[in-house]
Amino acid sequence: MKAAVIIPAYNEEQAISKVIQDIPNNIVSEIVVINNSSTDSTAEAAARSGATVLEERTKGYGSSCLKGIEYAASRGYEVLIFLDGDYSDYPEEAELLLRPIELGSYDFVLGSRVIGNYEKGSLPIRSRIGSFIAGLLINIFWGFKYTDLGPFRAIKTEKLLELKMEDKWFGWTVEMQIKALKKKLNVLEVPVSYRKRIGKSKVTGTLKGSLMAGIIILKVIFSELFKD
Hints:
Spore Coat Polysaccharide Biosynthesis Protein SpsA, Chain A, alpha/beta
């Protein structure tokens, strides 16, 4: 299947080239980096490494992903793979996510760090607690037990477009996971590896960032519940 990788990036000049270089070029046709108003040389580093670089001036993780989806869909890609630009994911594991979709069994495959092999200190306790609470609520409301809200994921483009994604911030990942269940997509979690990121996290790196992300995630969960 014709697949593209979408990488939202904000100030990741030290990591982005490593991410791009580790993506298996035999399974993806294009790597798209969305430069989200970086103040460093992220865009230049990504371009030098062979990625297509798009600019998104509206700040937010979801804003970057939406920009990437619009571009990739216009290019006819059948599957989209998302991962972070900080080198915490293992890009070489992309085939673990892509294979179940190619075999025709699943529409959406989420890479779970929690059930995978994660490096000590790479998943802060507040991040794991947040994923557990979100997973518990989703299981109660929609009957599927997610173990993680990780960024590493693959989904059929046509199915993703049907979800009509809206969130422009940190609720984007959980929005996709909930809407996938509401749309009755065939969903699978697979274990993936995870390591300490290069540089400081913009979300879990601070208590304020973690609290903000947690509030946004809960807001998305209950917003989707009330839409039902």
